Amino acid sequence: MFLSLSPFIAAALIPIYLWNEGSHWALWVAAIVLWWVAGLGITIGYHRLFAHRSYKGSKVWRFMALIAGATALQNSAMVWSASHRRHHQHTDHHGDPYDATRGFWWAHMRWIFHDNELVDDLSNVPDLQADPLVRWQQKYYWIITLSLNIGIPLGLGLLIDRPWGMLLFAGLTRIVFTHQATFCINSLCHILGTQPWSKNNTSRDSWICALVTFGEGYHNFHHAFPADYRNGLRWYQFDPAKWLICVASLVGLTSNLKRTEAPVRWRKRLERQTEKYETSASHFIPELGADWRLRVDSARQLVDQHLSQWAQDLRNYRRACRDGEVTKAMLHSLRETRRAWRHAWKNYLALEQTMPLPA
Ligand SMILES: [Zn+2]
Ligand SMILES: [Zn+2]
Fold first, then answer.
1. Does 140 share its domain with 179?
2. Which ligand sits closest to the CA of 190?
């Protein structure tokens, strides 16, 4: 009832309130700040820390993430993470609670209204059950979430003598926005955008989605490498969660930030490009396509070899870093392998221009 009615109640009450009481800057500022706190609590805390363990958080950090996440009114971190892990395990299939192949509205929020016998199944989060802080949030979830979601707006409202206004703006309307932003990760991020990393599921990369989901919009990358603490790989891609986790690591609040190594990432790109070529090749006139296919095959093998070499060089380099034995020759070899890989990769991509005409 709350999920269905809250957007309409907020949309109806806001103009009535503004008409009768007028606006106040603090209402808007508090709503936006608390929206970000809740949204980042889900992204940084529930999603990347608890559901995926993509980095480690100190006690203080985990506590802040649990409190911020609780203000989003999206269930406890344990329940949220259990269903999110099922989403990754069974993406687009039976068992995926927000299966995007069942349509936009199902993935967005209809799934919440249907009976789900697995909602209380916490068997896939034994690590979280062992965390006393997560257990504490699970036990007192409703007390925490209700006291924060009513107490903070009410307290701020009393400060400016507008308790009802603050409850409406920083309470109800802010929760509606937080819900819709998170729901977009399951719906919009599986419908809108490109699939540069994998076509094995419906997840997509889109900067528009990233803007409304606090940086979770690079969802195709996330599904390909769920253990990576980043969703937006490049420094300029809008991913405030990644920036915050990284800055927090400088002061010891977070640690062990997991990054997917470049050769592993590029191997996924190689697979995607190969799939593309295979799909195109199935439409060729057989006599014309044979020679081109051979060239694709040998170019792919070359890229593959260079990627393996690059991964090996990186492993050697890491080991040498640990032992304090990095040599100039080692750095030179790493640079050369990368250069050779880039050259081979460009040649592989260039084959697209020499593709025979389809039958
Ligand atoms: Zn997804
Ligand atoms: Zn995820």
1. yes
2. 1
Query: Vertex 231, ends 226 and 236: CA angle to 5°?
Result: 155
Closest ligand to Cα 204? 1
Classify residue 142 as exposed, middle or buried by CB count within 10 Å of its CB (0-12, 13-18, 19+). Answer: exposed
Bridge partners of residue 194, in order along the sequence: 205
* Same domain (yes/no): 14, 160: yes
Domain identity same for 199 and 293: no
Taking the centre of ligand 2 as the mean of its atom positions, its distance from the CA of residue 184, in whole angstroms, is: 13
In a domain, 348, yes or no: yes
Q: Are residues 199 and 348 in the same domain?
A: no
What domain range includes position 334?
262-354
How far, in Å, is the centroid of ligand 2 from the Cα of 322?
A: 31
Q: What pLDDT digit, counting tens, does each position of 146-178 carry?
A: 999 999 999 999 999 999 999 999 999 999 999
Which residue ranges of the chain lie beneath pLDDT 50?
Answer: none
Q: How many Å lie between the centroid of ligand 2 and the Cα of residue 226?
A: 6
Q: Which pTM does this prediction carry?
A: 0.89
Q: Using CA atoms, how far apart are residues 97 and 84, in angstroms rounded to an integer? A: 8
pLDDT of the residue at 3: 84
In angstroms, how far is CA 186 from the centroid of its own chain? 10
Q: Residue type for 332, please? A: H
State both tokens at 281: 């090749």
pLDDT digits (tens, 9 = 90+) for 126-153: 999 999 999 999 999 999 999 999 999 9
